[in-house]
Amino acid sequence: QVQLVEFGGGLVQAGGSLRLSCAASGLTFSSSAMGWFRQAPGKEREFVAFISWSGGSTSYADSVKGRFTISRDNAKNTVYLQMNSMKRKDTAVYYCAVTSYEHGSYYYADYDYWGQGTQVTVSS
After folding, report:
1. C-beta pairs of 79-82 under 8 Å, 24+ apart in sequence
2. What is the C-alpha to C-alpha distance for residues 31 and 84, in angstroms, rounded to an integer?
3. Burial status of residue 46 (CB atoms within 10 A of its CB: 0-12, 13-18, 19 or more)
4. pLDDT digits 0-9 by tens, 66-120
């Protein structure tokens, strides 16, 4: 079965950096577009970034553009989210997910499998 496991969350000061990793198994990772979403307390889950199966196409939410970078290593079945210049509003549980849409999607409902999430907290 498909399994996605996120790593790398934690506590960081505003202006700092974190890198999240998501290890995938049970699927043909190199053929799968991947996404990162996040959910803050009391808010809906929101799109952060996606990357196509090849890594050749990426897209970001306006709120993270220029600060976050999504990447993937198909040899390691892993997708990454590098987060720089972090802000308090980035505090959330971050989830990785896989979609059957070849180039990725902005929409929560288009993703078929999800990880358990990793907490990211940005302090002032």
Report:
1. 79/21, 79/22, 79/24, 79/34, 79/36, 79/51, 80/19, 80/20, 80/21, 80/22, 81/19, 81/20, 81/22, 81/36, 81/48, 81/49, 82/17, 82/19
2. 28
3. middle
4. 999 999 999 999 999 999 999 999 999 999 999 999 889 999 999 999 999 999 9
User: Helix, strand or coil for residue 84?
Assistant: coil
Residue 56 tokens read as 């050749």
Residue pair 80/19 in contact by the 8 Å Cβ criterion: yes
**CA angle, 75 as apex, 39 and 104 as ends, to 5°?**
40
